[in-house]
Design goal:
Helix content is about 35%, strand content about 25%. By secondary structure, the chain is of the alpha+beta class. An eight-stranded antiparallel sheet has the order 13-12-9-10-11-14-21-19, sandwiched between helices. A five-stranded parallel sheet has the order 3-2-1-4-5. The protein binds ligand MV4.
Length: about 450
């Protein structure tokens, strides 16, 4: 039995976790940095502990201070949210060693899936399709060229420790490949202290489709369908939806079964996501596994009716899943727009500052997960997410109409936001037809920019 959860995070996800705890009758502890003393996650919690200065390394990323806060507050479990320490295997290990309940997958799984080559090998082992590529690591440019000549150009060089697009380089010929091996390895060495690389064939204009799974501590694993997260900019997702307009019932079943096969093979527990690339011919390939609750989890909640964070807590408490795969049904369609303190007209430059006025949207099928309020100061020290607007409809057309309606109701004054960008995407025919790939922003941004300028005039 979990009685008190320390939430090792801030912002909207800290509120999201505390809401789940409250519904389950569990007390909550907030940790915060000095500049977050007035933040909503501190007010939402039953108690709070200031753990350090504004730098994440002094507070939200500082393991000894988070552990000290757990100790003095008497918390018996820790939820890491996303980002910060969520996929830090050492932290998960320390939490467990201190006999606290870690609300997430085991440290071993976090560590194994954090190695992208090991994750790829696990997928192959489980019979889950991967993009053709090297068998394990490539040790130098000569070996990379050898592999590329067998699988054919173009190829993608990837860092085993990669993430967020870092340490990843496409190459269309031998010359590009030789330079890609050097730049990808150096970048990965600098970012992750690990320059090891592997090679895959390049999938051009793919969609990013990911499958949400839940696994309990008794070996039961099921999937909650997919999310389409193709609308990204520099590996930052901007809009997500469930189900994917590119996935039919048969593909959904096959991708879901593949995700569950992999999760079973690695004995996964808690909520997790299996990320796939979907090519233009409808083939899907395993990319990586995310061992955390994700920003975009609400679209899955809206179409399944489940509370994924509550399920994570029940799982961590040792409860078996209360449903089977056949109990999971996808109802209607949900879309999430990430509302960021960024100016889409100025290359999405961050716009920290004070929120001078806020009018949240509402009405049927509308959910707003946010930590902001009038007079809240958006700090330049943390990510620029102000909130997530999620709209549900009986079908995609209704969800789109609701989102456009809700976005136009929403007022945030004081800082420029990504709302004007979202309004243009939602009105764009490529998006409306469900045809956006991961190349969408690159291919469409000029038009969207012009449309934003025209709308403002
Ligand atoms: C790829 C790819 C094309 N071919 N792998 C980006 C981050 C990581 N999750 C995997 N990524 C990609 N891997 C092969 N073999 C293209 C991407 C990619 C991408 C993937 C998902 C969403 C947006 C993307 C943007 C650029 C590249």
């Amino acid at each position: 039995m979990i009685e008190k959860v320390l939430v090792a995070n801030r912002g909207e996800i800290a509120l999201r976790v505390m809401r789940a705890c409250r519904e389950l009758g569990i007390r909550t502890v907030a940790v915060h940095s000095t500049i977050d003393a007035d933040s909503l996650h501190v007010k939402f919690a039953d108690e709070s502990v200031c753990i350090g200065g504004h730098l994440a390394s002094d507070s939200y990323l500082n393991i000894p201070r988070v552990m000290a806060a757990a100790e003095i507050s008497g918390a018996d479990a820790i939820h890491p949210g996303y980002g910060f320490l969520a996929e830090n295997a050492e932290f998960a290990d320390i939490v467990t060693s201190c006999e606290l309940t870690w609300i997430g997958p085991s440290a071993e799984i976090i560590s194994r899936m954090g190695d992208k080559n090991a994750a790829r090998m696990a997928a192959i082992e489980a019979g889950v399709p991967v993009v053709p590529g090297s068998e394990g690591l490539v040790k130098d440019a000569d070996e990379a060229v050898e592999v590329a000549e067998t699988i054919g150009y173009p190829v993608m060089v990837k860092a085993v420790a990669g993430g967020g697009g870092k340490g990843m380089r496409p190459a269309f010929d031998e010359e590009q490949l030789r330079s890609a091996v050097v730049t990808a390895s150096n970048e990965a060495q600098a970012a992750f202290k690990n320059g090891d690389l592997y090679l895959e064939k390049l999938v051009q204009r793919p969609r990013h489709v990911e499958v949400q799974i839940l696994g309990d501590l008794h070996g039961n694993i099921l999937h909650l369908g997919e999310r389409d997260c193709s609308i990204q900019r520099r590996h930052q997702k901007l809009i997500e939806e469930a189900p994917s307009p590119a996935v039919d019932e048969d593909l959904r079943r096959r991708m879901g079964e593949a995700a569950v096969r992999l999760a079973k093979a690695v004995d996964y527990s808690s909520a997790g996501t299996i990320e796939f690339l979907l090519d233009e011919d409808g083939n899907f390939y395993f990319m990586e596994m995310n061992t955390r609750i994700q920003v975009e989890h609400p679209v899955t909640e809206m179409v399944t009716g489940l509370d994924i964070v509550k399920e994570q807590i029940r799982i961590a408490s040792g409860e078996p899943l209360r449903f089977r795969q056949s109990d999971i049904t996808i109802r209607g369609h949900a879309i999430e727009c990430r509302v960021n303190a960024e100016d889409p007209a100025r290359n999405f430059a961050p716009t920290p500052g004070k929120i001078m006025a806020l009018h949240p949207p509402g009405g049927p099928g509308v959910r707003l997960d946010t930590h902001i309020y009038a007079d809240y100061v958006v700090s330049p020290h943390y990510d620029s997410l102000l909130g997530k607007l999620i709209c549900h409809g009986e079908d995609r057309e209704e969800a789109v109409a609701r989102m456009r309606r809700a976005l136009s109701e929403m007022v945030i004054e004081g800082v420029a936001t990504s709302i004007p960008f979202h309004l243009q995407v939602l009105g764009d025919e490529v998006f409306q037809e469900g045809k956006a790939t991961t190349a969408y922003i690159e291919e469409r941004m000029e038009r969207l920019k012009e449309a934003m300028a025209a709308a403002e005039a």
